[in-house]
Specification:
Helices cover 40% and strands 18% of the residues. It is α/β, with parallel strands linked by helices. The strands form 3 sheets. The protein has a 4-stranded parallel β-sheet, with helices on both faces. A 4-stranded parallel β-sheet has the order 3-2-4-5, with no helix packed on it. It has a 4-stranded parallel β-sheet with strand order 7-6-8-9, sandwiched between helices. Helix 3 links the parallel strand 4 and strand 5. Helix 4 packs parallel to helix 5 and helix 7 packs parallel to helix 8. The protein is flat, with a radius of gyration of 21 Å. The mean pLDDT is 95.
Length: 293
């Protein structure tokens, strides 16, 4: 490579908020404007990005884990969704609430209920610790959750003859397919619903295609975000120089080596202004280093 070549930073067309996150934040902002002075409580982490959550905190929104603490205000149900039993508790409490669950997650919940209604044991492919997966599992009785093919041994499916399978919306498709193959090996009747959302599929496909074409890949997002971690995994498989940054300042400490050509991806809850400032900072650093060589 010509070390004196001009640096290049290309940005994926699939960056910034996904539709579900954008919808949730717009609903919250609209409520704030329509009901000035009203206390607005966020149930759990509305989105998995610390910058967004800190901005909301500074604007007066309060994050809570117990819905009963919202008796004197308005409760916002997060974009990842909640179990049906918890939603019933909130409704029974009389607390004012707005459900901002992503429509795509709502669809997965509905599919899980439909599969259970057919007499199938619902199996969720996803991270059992994630709120979305817990919310889906909470729509039916005795759902099974699988996060890796290794978990899917014969004993895991004891007594399961008919299964209905759904996937966490941000899961990696290749990993889901590997788990599905294990399920089909042990369960004679399987109905599979591919519920990975299109925004996730677009971002993951882009990461897989582009990663090997660049000297390095920069993923902008929070390590708390499942879709961000999955982008890191996919891009990292194609380019070992894949790095995660959460803030523009993180660019300063990145080990860029002699790389001059970088590709930028982002998690689905990363604000565009953070992406723009991070990209600008990366370009300035590369230009400085080029001139000094």
């Amino acid at each position: 490579m010509n070390k004196s070549a001009s640096p290049k930073v290309d940005v994926s067309p699939y960056v910034g908020f996904c539709g579900g996150v954008n919808r949730t934040l717009k609903i919250i902002e609209k409520l704030r404007l329509e009901q000035p002075g009203k206390k607005i409580y966020l149930l759990g982490k509305v989105v998995h990005n610390e910058i967004v959550l800190n901005r909301m905190k500074r604007r007066g929104f309060k994050t809570i884990d117990d819905h009963r603490l919202a008796e004197d205000g308005l409760l916002i149900i997060q974009s990842h969704g909640i179990p049906a039993s918890r939603l019933s508790e909130i409704k029974a409490s009389g607390i004012s609430f707005v459900d901002t669950t992503c429509p795509m997650v709502k669809d997965i919940q509905a599919r899980a209920r439909r599969l259970a209604g057919e007499g199938r044991r619902v199996i969720i492919i996803g991270d059992r610790r994630h709120e979305e997966v817990q919310g889906i599992a909470g729509q039916v009785e005795n759902a099974l959750i699988l996060g890796t093919p290794e978990e899917a041994g014969r004993g895991f499916f004891r007594g399961v003859d008919r299964a209905g399978v759904v996937i966490q919306s941000t899961f990696i498709r290749a990993e889901a397919d590997a788990i599905l193959r294990k399920i089909r090996r042990f369960v004679p009747d399987v109905r599979f619903e591919n519920t990975i959302c299109k925004p996730t599929s677009d971002r993951q496909r882009d990461a897989r295609i582009q990663a090997a074409r660049y000297d390095g890949v920069i993923v902008i997002g929070s390590p708390a975000s499942a879709n961000t971690r999955n982008l890191m995994s996919i891009a990292g498989a194609g380019n070992r120089r894949t790095r995660l940054v959460s803030r523009p300042e993180d660019v300063d400490g990145l080990p860029l080596g002699q790389g001059r050509k970088f590709y930028v991806l982002s998690g689905a809850s990363t604000p565009m202004d953070v992406i723009d400032r991070t990209v600008a900072r990366l370009r300035r650093r590369l230009e400085r280093e080029t001139k000094s060589r």
